[in-house]
Design brief:
Blueprint: E1 7-11, E2 14-18, H1 25-36, E3 69-78, E4 81-88, E5 95-101, H2 115-127, E6 136-142, E7 145-151, H3 158-165, H4 170-189, E8 192-193, E9 202-204, E10 212-214, E11 221-222, E12 228-229, E13 247-248, H5 252-266, H6 276-283, H7 297-301, H8 304-313, H9 324-328
Antiparallel strand pairs: 1-2, 3-4, 4-5, 5-7, 6-7, 8-11, 9-10, 12-13
Protein name: CPK10 protein
Keywords: ATP-binding, Kinase, Nucleotide-binding, Serine/threonine-protein kinase, Transferase
GO molecular function: ATP binding; protein serine/threonine kinase activity
Length: about 400
């Protein structure tokens, strides 16, 4: 996920720093806790009326993480850390912890954001409470490691689910689309953009595969609808056209949602190529992005409402693209046309395009060859995907 560790905060006019060799993480997280929950003061224990799962707390001194949590099996790993199953010593709730180094070669990337914006970002991520967003419980530091504790999703991610089932009924597509858009709408209402919406970053809460949750906020950033200069970050075939220009707003998440819903309906992505120059041309091709976009048997069976929604999300013109709230209120979610045009038959298996996994970070070496707009971080803020679990 790549959380920022170079940080500073102000307490009664005093600026404190947290970097390799700087102030202890205890003081840093206590400052974070004051922002996330004003009732907590520096050095004070949590009051009885506060809920452990609702605030960000620090370990006292060098208290070992394992004194508070049972650490289980390794369930995933990525560039910035490993993910283990875990639970509190005082409870049995299914949790997981991402363990990230705070120094060395594979330390979580430092952010170039101003201190105020940095803390607003952390506070907003910690405060996200939505049935379709994974819940972050605590951020803890012990020694040279940061522990990010979150609820554990026991079901498969959406990509694996699609690969296993091979096809979806249109009613299931509609419900999954509704949950995805609801999660993104909540993220945007908190003043954030996710920047890496894709099937691998949606996971089912449990094995019933009824509740989908958005995870991996490592690329998240504070943003509004006004395009600003940002780093080119995300996953190649789900990234919005304007992302490659280096100037975009949170509407980039809606394009990504459109690409995912397109995949749910048809079994393939709207634009499939691992060549960035070709992809950018395809985005703006009036033929490929016209009615030709909805080719294939699955789209011929799909209701017009689904096509209308995807068309509104995959608008190259940001000003004409649906917002998250508009997408959630789309007529398709109020209609019952699936009873007539249900996609109940497995016409063809879901085809996972390998290009969909190409992280923009993997192509960083040719960043300037694409003549993309420079970014605020000079290409340093490349996203890291959530480990596969």
């Amino acid at each position: 996920m790549g959380y920022e560790l170079h940080a500073e905060f102000s307490n009664d006019g005093e600026t404190q720093h947290c970097q390799d060799g700087g102030v202890s993480w205890t003081r840093f997280v206590q400052g974070f806790a004051r922002l996330a929950h004003p009732a907590i003061c520096c050095g004070a224990r949590q009051e009885k009326q506060d809920k452990l799962t609702d605030v960000v707390l620090s370990l006292e001194g060098e208290q070992n993480f394992k004194d508070l949590f049972r650490v289980g099996e390794l369930i995933g790993h990525g560039t910035f850390g490993k993910v283990y199953s875990c639970s509190r010593l005082s409870g049995e709730e299914a949790l997981c912890v991402k363990i990230v180094a705070t120094s060395g070669r594979h330390a979580a990337r430092a952010s170039k954001l101003p201190a105020g914006e940095r803390y607003d970002l952390l506070r907003q991520i910690a405060s996200l409470r939505h049935p379709n967003i994974v819940k972050y419980h605590q951020f803890l530091q012990s020694g040279d490691f940061l522990y990010v504790v979150m609820s554990r999703c026991l079901g498969p991610d959406l990509a694996d689910h699609l690969e296993a089932t091979g096809h979806l009924k249109m009613q299931d597509v509609k419900e999954l689309s509704r949950m995805m858009l609801s999660a993104v709408a909540a993220v945007h209402q908190h003043g954030l953009m996710h920047r890496d919406v894709k099937p691998e970053n949606f996971r089912f809460k449990d094995l019933t595969t009824t509740t989908l949750q958005l995870l991996d906020f490592g690329a998240a950033k504070i943003a509004d609808d006004v395009p600003k200069a940002h780093t080119v970050v995300g996953t190649l075939l789900y990234a919005a056209p304007e992302v490659f220009d280096g100037a975009y707003g949170r509407s980039c998440d809606l394009w990504s949602c459109g690409a995912v819903i397109f995949y749910l309906v048809s079994g393939h992505l709207p634009f499939q190529t691992s060549d960035v120059t070709m992809l950018r041309s395809m985005h703006r091709d009036p033929v490929l992005n016209g009615e030709c976009l909805f080719r294939g048997e699955h789209w011929r069976q799909a209701p017009m409402g689904a096509r209308s929604l995807v068309r509104g999300l995959l608008s190259v013109d940001v000003n004409r693209r649906l917002t998250a709230d508009e997408a959630c209120d789309h007529d398709w979610f109020l209609s019952f046309d699936e009873a007539i045009q249900a996609n109940d038959d497995p016409l063809s298996p879901m085809n996972r395009c390998e290009g969909s996994r190409v992280k923009l970070a993997d192509l960083k070496r040719t960043y300037f060859d694409w003549n993309l707009a420079d970014s605020d971080n000079s290409g340093e803020d490349w996203g890291d995907s959530e480990p596969r679990r």
